[in-house]
Amino acid sequence: IPLSPRLTQDRSGTWGAVWAEGDGLIGEVVYGRVDGGGTVAASSVGAGPGTIRFPDLDFDASNGAWLAWARESGRRAAVCVRHPGSGRIVEIGSEGLAAVSGVRILAGGPAGIWLFWSGRGSGRDEIFWSRFDGASWSPAHVAEMVVTSAFIPPLALYWHLRGRWRFRDTTTNTIRRPPS
Questions:
Q1: What is each CA distance from 77 to 52, 68, 104, 126, in whole angstroms?
Q2: Residue 54 · residue 18 · CB < 8 Å
Q3: Could you give the 3-state DSSP secondary structure of residue 88?
């Protein structure tokens, strides 16, 4: 039996559907597009231990289907997001999150993908949010972050030492202020 079904229309007018299935021990997120006859060609996009709740769906500017849902197992809860291009599922918001009471994903705007969820964290009810940037998922951007992370610290150290050497006081071997 589908739980918490959600229908959303994409940029071309085709409807997409997402819902949760499960028995409480193993949960599953199911997604599909609704064809002209009203039939959903659906497939499982994420499964795991626990209960799947509050599945949500929205389409980005390139008509990619972004999916989000809450997964609760025991006293631990997490919010999961599925990237449309890679199909990779990212689990966020699991640190100190005991329960989730709602998930909403907003895509297609110029500001990127926004995810909002409410839940119990740090002993009280809170509203959480996260922003996804499409560039942060691309291999080129990941490679750029790795390269800059590797080279920036040594370059910063070089410039620091160069400045200390250039502006040192040779008589007392101390640092002097650079000229204004």
A1: 10, 13, 16, 14
A2: no
A3: coil
Q: 117: how many CB neighbours lie within 10 A of its CB? A: 26
Segment holding 155, helix H or strand E: helix 139-166
Q: What is the pLDDT of residues 103-147, one digit of tens each?
A: 888 886 666 788 888 887 767 787 887 877 655 556 776 777 788
| Element (DSSP H or E) covering residue 107 | strand 97-109
Q: Residue 145 to residues 62, 95, 136, 149: CA-CA distances in angstroms?
A: 24, 24, 9, 6
63: closest CA among 28, 15, 103?
Answer: 15
Alpha-carbon span 172 to 175, nearest angstrom: 9
In terms of Cα–Cα distance, which of 33, 76, 72, 73 is closest to 54?
72
Residue 15 makes CB contacts below 8 A (sequence gap 6+) with: 7, 8, 9, 33, 34
- pTM of the predicted protein model: 0.66
